[in-house]
Amino acid sequence: MKTINPGNGGVITLNNEVKEVGRLTYTIFPEENKLIISFVLVHPEFEGRGMGKYLVEEAIKFARENNWKVYPHCSYARSVMMRMNDVEDILLQR
């Protein structure tokens, strides 16, 4: 389950039946058509299962729906996006 809070910033959360698995925080600069991924966190017991990548993919999907580019300020998000083949149109390198 994810929750996206549009506005100047928000959080995408990933939950299982019992608790939060991880979260991604972002800031939006609508005047620049830009979403900045600030932080990706996957709780230790869920690491190594692709949950962080899933959160980054959800942020990319959200940005595409709004015609925004994505700047991955978070080093984890940057490394995930650099390995993806289908983000050239949306990835801001700085």
Task: Tell me what you see in this structure.
The chain has 94 residues and is an alpha+beta fold. The protein has 2 helices and 4 strands.
**Major β-sheet, in short?**
4 strands, mixed
Helix-strand topology string = EEEHEH
- Helix share bin: 25-40%
Shape: globular
Span of the ends, CA to CA: 31 Å
| Residue windows where pLDDT falls under 50 for at least 5 positions | none
- What's the tally of helices? 2
Q: Strand arrangement, largest sheet?
A: 1-2-3-4
Mean pLDDT metric? 91
> Hey, roughly how much beta strand do the residues contain?
25-35%
What multimeric state do the chains show?
single chain
Sum this structure up briefly.
This protein has 94 residues and is an alpha+beta fold.
Question: Which features does this protein show?
Answer:
alpha+beta; 94 residues; 26% helix; four-stranded mixed β-sheet; globular; 4 strands
What's the layout of helices and strands?
Elements: E1 9-15, E2 20-29, E3 34-42, H1 51-65, E4 69-72, H2 75-83
Parallel strand pairs: 3-4
Antiparallel strand pairs: 1-2, 2-3
